[in-house]
């Protein structure tokens, strides 16, 4: 079938319609013709597989996994990059500028023109070095989004080429010196430009090729190595131009012979489509297809990449419980933004624009949740203290491509045997251009073939609710004496099966019929690979992904290193790290701080240059001379540390102001989401003049002045609804929040001046539960629902946990969660209209409970003071609208210190000794339960904390007020 006939285009919508001649229930015939396998096409049609993008703080916590949980870290490296069929063949590093360009800030490798480059600050370069230990052929590329100020000042004048080149060159040479590899590809242009800077791309490549200066002492290259370094440097290839939705580089390459010769790979983002402007022979009609196939005026093929795309959104094992299918059924591992959606993007971006490489932004989410673009990764790595890693089922879906072909880059002699994509045996009829939708059941398949024509694999994606039959015929191939085809499948579990029962498993072995067709009916909401390879006895193909492990809360000793749930600390950091040994980097071992470019433990930077100085103090270095750089999310410098489940604690830190021009230091607590110091629910800010301000989020609620000083010790204590601020141990402000944020991490912040931070402590508070012990997502299978609920995951908000919510407006709808502990919080963005009946272990204990109007990730209702043990809590919607995002539960084993139960005793005195016979049968049981609970807790009970005392007291008073005397008609 010709390229022109592969799809019918609906011009008005830009969508790809189902190909003519294929009704929804017709079998799909696929002919894999050996004459279409183009072994001579070594760039455009070779299947490179998958890549990972490291940028914007997305890899920050990986260095902590390596130091704290090396076994889990190196297992991750093997899973993603290792084996005969690596899942990932490329690490792309977006160079940082200390500014927030998405989810956070990556450090600048050169903050000033005089500073020596330090590539160790950027975790992406080290990730690539580690990946190369299991996959030496791994490719590495770089690009920039924004730039350090010393470069930007000149660039803005139109004279900054030399500065830009110097930043790139010194960084690349430092990477070579530290990690032993030369970056393979450079995009000299700006990430997601809409107007490719063709002149600079040309200038940059020519400058690289003609550069002979490698002896400068700044580079630190020994004389004996300079020749090898120069050779490697001159081999750097060019990728351009990482556009987002605009597709201008392809036509530019076809119309400019010099540019065509310079650019080795054309990449663009977030669309599966090629351009289709003008006549068929014009440079604007299918330009990327022409580049990849070599069917262009130059007769040469070029690499074409999907150079930034998303992974599946949320956790697949949660989102399978959605109600987005027909009649409220689940879409399984499919649906918009699902694992099957990503698979369809791979297929469609190849079928429609011949892209043979897909780079995830990110593949690994190693930053704290709550930052922009949370929950869109293949692997979640956010708790380095526990080693918890979540390997999403989308990895199995991606392995349906990579484990049934030899992927990567062909060598110079064309002997590596990289499999070719086969345009004539690949097609996509699903709708959409980025978030694609396969519910129409249209054909979606991609064929990869051995260049020697001995084997092939056809990957079929069926993200619809009906089966689809495929008939595949092999022609002009050398399949040998045994033409058996294996069928491997990934889909959600059937009823009664374990959740991963149908992930990447062999379902059938089939042989061609008398007409030469292999016939197989692909199940709904599945991905299937039909391959002539013999994988049935290959242990690596059957290998299951590692288990996630327990997501334990961060609770350490006074050194911040070892877990300790019995002392008065949740975390501490003196930024000295004397207890740390050497850390493995690639194939070498380095001192702890040197291995990570002096970056502090467990901190994720949102803006600013946060680095430990030689004196063991954490400094924010981004000052007035560095600050005026472009940023997507512009904020003053701030960094985040800790656990989102921390609740009642006191955070304190020493701050200092070494910058004579001024300064500001800030300490915040209970941060759940956002990327500014004002996103910590309660934050204290102070300058060297002693002027302080206490904020609830960004609103000042108290201010004052202490004596001017070079430094202070700041502290913020949050216990229940009361929050107190301290300067040098003296209370300066106290606030009783009527609608408190109850959980979150610690934030440090500064102005654009060098500012010091030391001796960070996060301490427990006697009589209060320090943290939630567990979290349940609304889509977790342990949470059961009755009544009408809309359970949505597609196109979910990044500020909702795992991008999913369950919503009801139907009276009588309910949900139930079993847990062990003393309380539970209902989390979700709500308008406060919902009224609930709350049942514990089958008994109504709170009728007509009001909910709070809350932002996302906050508690709309809290239940505390239950007897410590196993419970089942049921929430019944009486009226209004309830959005359930997640639930957190607290454990009775985590409360230290004395708890004052006097309020309960006073409440018992106040209610006296009512007689059940005096009150109606409808009103008495709730009071009786509240009374019994209060009596059980009046002298204290296991797990009871101060918040529990407050709630037991309040429930008793409310139940007493709701008693109705017999014969009394007043309600």
UniProtKB/TrEMBL annotation:
Entry superkingdom: Bacteria
UniProt cross-references to InterPro entries, sorted A to Z: Aldolase_TIM, GH, GH59_cat, Glyco_hydro_59
Q: What keywords were assigned to this record?
A: Lipid degradation, Lipid metabolism, Signal, Sphingolipid metabolism
Q: What is its EC number?
A: 3.2.1.46
Any Pfam family the entry gives: Glyco_hydro_59
Pinpoint the Glycosyl hydrolase family 59 catalytic domain residues. 47-403
Q: Where are the transmembrane segments?
A: none
Question: Is Signal there in the keyword field?
Answer: yes
- Signal sequence interval, chain numbering: 1-23
Q: Which family does it belong to?
A: Belongs to the glycosyl hydrolase 59 family.
What's this protein's name? Answer: galactosylceramidase
Q: What is the lineage of its organism?
A: Bacteria, Bacillati, Actinomycetota, Actinomycetes, Kitasatosporales
